[in-house]
Design goal:
The chain is globular. It has one domain. With 76 residues, the chain is α+β, with helices and mostly antiparallel strands. It has a two-stranded antiparallel ribbon. The longest helix has 13 residues. It is 28% helix and 28% strand.
């Protein structure tokens, strides 16, 4: 079952929904990761790439978590 990627506490400009609407690949990654997250495995990460920024290897990940200590918007 697909998640509708909505949260009534956010505006219609909720970034995850916008990106998922523009990219079916990104939407599939998010939907697959949402199916993996549960009480036993509350966090999963998706590797999006590694770039060299200022000569330093820099990794870009998408983290999907139910662990509130890892939230960055409400609690960070």
């Amino acid at each position: 079952m697909s998640h509708n990627l909505k949260n009534s506490e956010y505006d219609d400009d909720f970034m995850i929904k916008q990106i998922a609407m523009e990219s079916t690949l990104f939407n599939r990654y998010v939907q697959d990761a949402l199916r993996e997250v549960d009480k036993q495995y509350p966090t999963t990460e998706i590797w999006l790439g590694t770039l060299r920024v200022g000569g330093v290897e820099t990794q870009i990940n998408l983290t999907i978590t139910q662990e509130t200590r890892r939230f960055i918007d409400e609690y960070g």
